[in-house]
Every structure is written in C-alpha cells, then in structure tokens.
Amino acid sequence: MARSPVLNTAGAESEDLMCDSVKCYICLNPFEKQTVGSLENCQHVFCLECILQWSQCCSYL
After folding, report:
1. What CA–CA distance (Å, rounded) separates 13 from 16?
2. What residue numbers bound the domain in which 49 lies?
3. Which of 6, 13, 29, 45 has the maximum number of C-beta atoms within 10 A of its C-beta?
4. Is the residue at 2 inside a domain?
5. What pLDDT does residue 28 have?
6. Is residue 1 part of a domain?
7. 24, part of any domain
8. pTM of this structure
C-alpha cells in the first residue's frame, strides 16, 4: 500500500531559503516571493501549490 507523502511547509518563504534551488523542481518556474514546501525525506524545494497538487495525484513509496 502506498503511503501518503509527508509535506514540510512550515510557512517557509522562497526568499528565506539558503539553498541552490532557485526554481521549483515540478513546474521549473523560478521562485518569487511565495510559500514553498518540500518532502520530509528530500532536500528539493517546490512551489507549495505544485507539491500539494502532486501529493493529491501521485503515489509515494
């Protein structure tokens, strides 16, 4: 049975991130001042809207 992804949003804002990621790994759009999210076991950062949509339609092992 596939588990649901654990999302880490914690109200992070893209402008506060200190990482190499300057774009969402789902839509590939550059981050602007927006809320972002990541998976619990992943260092990639995504647009909050993208990661929420992904979590609703994709299986996670």
Report:
1. 5
2. 7-57
3. 45
4. no
5. 93
6. no
7. yes
8. 0.58
